[in-house]
Amino acid sequence: MFERAVLPRVLPFGCYMLFIVIADLLQRLGLGAAELRWLYGVKVGCVVLLLWVFRREYVELMQPRLHLRTIAGAVFAGIVVFLLWINLDWPWMLLGESTGFDPTVDGRIDVPLALVRISGAALVVPLMEELFWRSFLTRWLTRPDFLAVDPAHIKVATTVVAVILFGVEHNLWFAGVVAGGVYSYLYWRDRNLWSPILAHAVTNGLLGIWVLATANWRFW
């Protein structure tokens, strides 16, 4: 039962991280951005496939619908995180360098490529990451039988650990810590995983629109 509960929440995230390693390896072997531009689509496709295969295991997604007030709060939180994300980019807030994702070809945005990127970031990543970081890891660090842990009873110490790890997963580590803190608070307050998923989706969706509008590819 333990493995059956863990794997559906860990494998999609592990698959996503594996593709990051693969992309880095291929770049080191000499492949350029042009050759790797559709690798993100393959990565998202594999994650979607895993989420679909394990869809019946996600009991935390079968919770009652969010109330209008909760939805408004999650959307507001997502907007705030987006605004902080694009401003918390001082040198000491960065881990390494990020070339980002440039969806342009001959100076023009490749629309299908951009749509794959923004839809993956706004629809797939929030679901996959919140299942792993909030629903699994934060609760599992509280108690191995994590599905029995009420989000309102998650320990502060385990939340801090998960938030820090979530932060260092990103190049903008400090912004990641802030975002992780906000999403964790929503999960604790609303006791419903759809709340941080919605906030995360709003953040990533707005970020994608802003990146396309300003050509700040390093934020992607």
TrEMBL record:
Record-linked InterPro entries: Prenyl_protease-related, Rce1/LyrA-like_dom
GO molecular function annotation: endopeptidase activity
Pfam families for this protein: Rce1-like
Transmembrane spans: 7-26, 38-54, 66-86, 114-133, 197-217
Source taxon at top rank: Bacteria
Keywords noted in UniProt: Hydrolase, Membrane, Protease, Transmembrane, Transmembrane helix
Example GO biological process: proteolysis
Domain CAAX prenyl protease 2/Lysostaphin resistance protein A-like, first and last residues per copy: 115-205
Protein name (database record): CAAX prenyl protease-related protein
